[in-house]
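To illustrate the input format used throughout this study, we show a single complete record. The first block contains the structure-token representation of the backbone; no residue identities are included at this stage. The design step must infer an amino acid for every position from geometry alone.
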């Protein structure tokens, strides 16, 4: 199964002014593409060449000699998932199943938003802030570099990329402002509800 770069699910300028077309030009067109190209090269001619991306990630995570493959393959998955977490006119309080679950399990939307933002702000260096299902309950976690909840038995529902390449052109060092814009204007709650199943 070839590893391919998925198209963005929106026009590159659709999320302006919160995320610029210039950021997507690099983040999707250069960074995400490089992870795809590197993964393809690393699996070429190996027994992982015909495997699905998720299987490649799990196999590489279990083998310390495949750290480079893990980093690239997990970053392919994390970015493809991240794009789907974004939408024009998104963010703010959710509706549907996720809204009730946030109220019941995370202390309501305001507490969720503060805790999710804090997870992203306090992730030292590069990484990700996630809303996941852990044994059927919502949890907020962060991960470093390419690490992904997929390898920890957790089901990802929502993610924010907090690598500097995700926000530096638009926000410079102001990661908290990027996360606030993500929460207020960009979260695709329809995608989160669909992930809940
Ligand atoms: Mn990124």
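Output of the design step:
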């Amino acid at each position: 199964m070839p590893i391919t770069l998925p198209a963005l699910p929106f026009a590159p300028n659709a999320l302006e002014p919160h995320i610029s077309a210039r950021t997507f030009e690099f983040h999707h067109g250069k960074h995400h593409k490089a992870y795809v190209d590197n993964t393809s090269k690393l699996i070429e001619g190996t027994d992982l060449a015909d495997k699905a991306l998720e299987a490649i990630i799990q196999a590489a995570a279990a083998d310390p000699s495949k750290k480079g493959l893990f980093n690239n393959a997990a970053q392919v998955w994390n970015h493809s998932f991240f794009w789907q977490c974004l939408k024009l006119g998104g963010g703010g309080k959710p509706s549907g199943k996720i809204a009730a679950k946030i109220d019941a399990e995370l202390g309501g939307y305001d507490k969720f938003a503060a805790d999710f933002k804090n997870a992203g702000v306090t992730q030292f260096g590069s990484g990700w802030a996630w809303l996941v299902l852990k044994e059927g309950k919502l949890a907020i976690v962060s991960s470093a570099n390419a690490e992904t909840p997929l390898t920890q038995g957790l089901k990802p529902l929502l993610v924010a990329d907090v690598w500097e390449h995700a926000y530096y052109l638009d926000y410079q060092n102001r990661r908290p402002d990027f996360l606030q814009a993500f929460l207020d204007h960009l979260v695709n709650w329809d995608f989160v509800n669909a992930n809940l199943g």
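Structural context for interpreting the output: The chain has two domains: 21-84, 97-196. The chain has eight helices and three strands.
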